[in-house]
Design a protein that fits this description.
- Strands 5-4-6-1-9-10 form a six-stranded mixed β-sheet, with no helix packed on it. A two-stranded antiparallel ribbon has the order 2-3. A two-stranded antiparallel ribbon has the order 7-8.
- The chain is mainly beta.
- It is built from no helices and ten strands.
Length: 103
């Protein structure tokens, strides 16, 4: 599993810069840079609901469609640590995998 840090504090799944999802999905099949990726698991916290899957975890499974990323192997992320950014995002397209690196 990958250590995940998330600066998207308005995501319903964010708990103290960690994610309480067991698995997240990074999209960006044709991405050539981090700006072309996004965390498709992002959900804006409008105050009406919170994720009830449990406590946030330091390690998370990362499914990733960014084929050009050097950490992507068979649509899974194998970086030791990744960072999801997009503070104040209103939708998943305004988030990104800041760790994305072209192979």
């Amino acid at each position: 599993m990958t250590s995940l840090k998330c600066s998207v504090t308005n995501c319903v799944h964010n708990c103290e810069h960690l994610c309480n999802m067991n698995t997240i999905e990074v999209k960006g099949r044709d991405a050539k840079d981090a700006c072309s990726t996004c965390c498709s698991t992002f959900r804006d916290d409008d105050g009406s609901a919170r994720n009830s899957t449990g406590d946030a975890k330091l390690e998370t499974n990362i499914e990733c469609s960014a084929e050009a990323c050097k950490y992507n192997k068979n649509l899974k992320c194998y970086a030791e640590q990744i960072s999801i950014s997009g503070a104040g995002a209103s939708n998943s397209e305004k988030t990104e995998c800041a760790t994305f690196t072209v192979a």
